[in-house]
Amino acid sequence: MAKSNHIDMLNGPIAVKLILFALPVAVSALLQQLLNAADIAVVGRFASSQAMAAVGANTFVINLMLNLFIGLSVGANVVIARYIGQGRAEDSRKAVHTSITLSLISGVFLCILGWYIARPLLSLLGTPAEILDLAALYFRIYFLGMPFIMLFNFSSAILRSKGDTRRPLYIMAFSGVINVLLNLFFVTQLHLSVEGVALATLISSAISSLYLLRLLCREEDPYVHLDLRQLRLHRHVLYRICTIGIPAGLQGVIFNISNVLIQSGINSLGTASVAANTASLNFDYFCFFVGNAFGQAGTSFMSQNFGARQIDRCRSIVRDCMLLGPGLTFCVSMLFILFAEPLSGLFTTDAEVVRLSAQRFYIVLTFYGIHSFNEILSGMLRALGHSVVPAVINVLFICGVRLLWLFLVFPHNPDFGFLMYCYPISWVTNIGVLMPVFFWVVRREFRKAR
To answer: 152: number of CA atoms within 13 Å, CB side?
Structure first.
C-alpha cells in the first residue's frame, strides 16, 4: 500500500513522475477553488445577496492571514524531503512531529485571534455596515476551524515530501462533497445563512484533516510515521522549517496586499471592468494551478535528490521542470485564449463585459507560461535552502513593478487593458532577474555538494 501511494523521486524517469506528482496538486487546488465558489453560490442562491456579499468580503482577509502559516508548511515539505533524501529517518520523524505540533499551535492561535479581531478588522477594511454583522459571524465560525485547516495543509505537505499527492486529493474530493451537501442542508433545510456555509466548511475541514492524521498514524514508512504521543517541537527542526517557510509566507502576504491595490484600480474604472476581471480570473486560476503544481513538484524532487547528493539527477529535475511546467501552462492558456469570447460569455451577456474579459485573456494569459517559471525557480531555490532570495526578488520585481505601474503609469492612461499590462511586464521583469540568480545559486550549491 505504501509503495502504491508514493512516487520514488530518487530513481527512475523524472519527467513522467513530475507529471504524476503535479497533476493531483493542480486538481486539488482547482477543487479547493470550486469549493470556495460553492459556498458563495449556495448562500447567494438560497439565502440572500447580503449573505453572499458577507462571505465574499472575507476572502481577502482570510487569504492574507492564512498565507504566512501555509508558507510554514512549504518549509516542512522541504525539510522532510531533504531528510528522506539523506536517509535520516530519525530526523525525518522529528520533522514530522514538529510540523504537526506547529500546525496545531498555529491553528489554535489563528482561531483565538480571528474570534477577537473579526469585527474590528472587517470594519477597518471598509466592509459595508449592512453586511458587517454577517461578515463577522462568518469570519468567527470559519476561524474556529483553523486548527483543522492548518492540520490538513501540514499533513498534505508531509505526504508530498515523500511523493504522495494522490491521497490528499482523494480526501479533499470526499470532504468537498460533504461540504456541498452540508451547505445545502444547513441553508435550504435549516434556513441558516452565513453561519450555515461556515459550519459546513468547519465540519468538512475536520473530516479531511482528521482522516489525513489517521493516515499518518497508520503509515508504515518510517520517514513519515506519526506517533501522537511524541508530538513536540524540536528546536533545530523548527528553526529550519521557519527559515524556509517564513519568507515564503511573507511573500504570499505581500502578494495579496498588492493584488488588493490593483483591484482598487480596476474598481475605479467602473462596473464593467470589475465584472470583466471577475469573469476572466476564473481561467487565470487554471493556468496558475498548473505552474504552481510544477513548482511544488520541483520543490519536493529537488529537496530529496539534493539531500541524496544526486547532482546529475538534480540537473535533470531543473531541465524537466522548466520544460514541462511552462510548456503545459502555455498550452492551457492558449486553449483559453482561442475561445476567449465564448468562455467570457458563460458569465455574462453584456457585450462590453465580454469584450473587456476577452481583452484580459489576450494580455494576461498569453504570458502565463513565463509566470510559471517564477513559481518553479522559486520552489527549487527553497529546496536548496534559499528561501529569502526568491521572496525578495518576487516582492521587488513583481509586486514592486505592479505598484509602480498602478500609481505612476496607469493614471496617464486609465484604461482596463492598459492596467492589465502590469501583470506580464512584472513577470518578464522578475524572470529577467530571478533566472540568472537561480543558475548562479544552483552552480554554487551543486559545486559545494560534490
So the answer is: 25
CA distance 405 to 315: 36
CA distances for 126 relative to 60, 129, 255, 278, angstroms: 12, 8, 20, 20
pLDDT, residue 5, reads 72
Contact between 67 and 253 under an 8 Å Cβ cutoff? The reply is yes
In the chain, the percentage of residues whose pLDDT exceeds 70 is 96
Question: Torsions phi, psi of 350, nearest 5?
Answer: -75, 120
Reduced 3-state DSSP string for the chain: CHHHHCCCCCCCCCHHHHHHHHHHHHHHHHHHHHHHHHHHHHHHHHCCHHHHHHHHCCHHHHHHHHHHHHHHHHHHHHHHHHHHHHCCHHHHHHHHHHHHHHHHHHHHHHHHHHHHHHHHHHHHCCCCHHHHHHHHHHHHHHHHCHHHHHHHHHHHHHHHHCCCCHHHHHHHHHHHHHHHHHHHHHHHHCCCCHHHHHHHHHHHHHHHHHHHHHHHHHCCCCCCCCCHHHCCCCHHHHHHHHHHHHHHHHHHHHHHHHHHHHHHHHHCCCHHHHHHHHHHHHHHHHHHHHHHHHHHHHHHHHHHHHHCCCHHHHHHHHHHHHHHHHHHHHHHHHHHHHCHHHHHCCCCCCHHHHHHHHHHHHHHHHHHHHHHHHHHHHHHHHHCCCCHHHHHHHHHHHHHHHHHHHHHHHHHCCCHHHHHCHHHHHHHHHHHHHHHHHHHHHHHHHHHHC
Q: Is the pLDDT of residue 30 over 90?
A: no
Instruction: Give the pTM.
Output: 0.88
If one compares 45 and 151, the residue with the highest pLDDT of the two is 151
Compute the mean pLDDT over every residue in the chain, rounded to the nearest whole number.
Answer: 88
